[in-house]
Amino acid sequence: MPESVALGKMTKRTVALVLAAVAAAALFGGLVHAVLVAAHVSEPAATTVQGTTPRRLWATAAGLSALVGVVIGGLALARPASRFGSASGRLGAIVALVAGLLAGVNGALVLAVASGGPGSGNGVVGAAGALVLGLIGMALGGLALTRSRRSG
C-alpha cells in the first residue's frame, strides 16, 4: 500500500507541474500577443519572408539574452547563497537585471523600427518575446537582489 500512495502523490505532482507549465506557456503567448497588438504589428504580412534576416537575428539575440536573464534570475532567487560564496546570489541578481534590461530595450527597439507584422522578416515575434522575457528576467533579478540585501 505505501508504494501506491507514493505513486499517487508523484502522479498528482506531475499533473500539477504539467498544468502549471501549460498555464505559463498560455500566459506567455497572451503577453506576446498583447505586446504585438500594442505595437500595432499584430497583422501578418501579405508576403512572407523566408529565412534569416538581420532583424530576425537581432530579435533572436535579444530573446536569448532575455532567456539567460530569466534562468540566472531564477537560479539567484532559488539559491541566493551558493557554493561560490555569499556574493554569488547578489552577482546573479545583477546579471539577471542587466541581461533583462538589455533584452527588453533591444526587443523594444526592434518593435519600434519594424514596418510589418509576423512574417515580414522584421523579427517582431522574437522581439515581443524578448521584451516579455526581459521584463520577467528583470523582475526575478530584482526580487533576488532584494532578498540578498535583506539576508546579507
How would you describe this structure in keywords?
mainly alpha; 4 helices; flat
Regions with little confidence, pLDDT below 50 for 5+ residues:
none
Instruction: Outline the biggest β-sheet.
Output: none
> What is the average per-residue confidence, as pLDDT, rounded to a whole number?
84
SSE-based structural type: mainly alpha
- Total beta-strand segments: 0
Beta-strand proportion = under 5%
Following the backbone from N to C, one meets helices and strands in this order, namely HHHH
Shape summary = flat
Total helical segments: 4
* Measured distance between first and last alpha carbons: 46 Å
Helix % is: over 70%
The total tally of domains equals 1
What is Rg?
19 Å
What does this structure look like?
The protein has 152 residues and is mainly α. The chain has one domain (2-151). Helix content is 77%, strand content 0%. The protein has helices at residues 2-38, 54-78, 87-113, 124-151. Helix 2 runs parallel beside helix 4. It is flat, with a radius of gyration of 19 Å.
Helix and strand arrangement:
Layout: H1 2-38, H2 54-78, H3 87-113, H4 124-151
Characterize this entry briefly.
The chain is mostly helical and 152 residues long. Helices cover 77% and strands 0% of the residues.
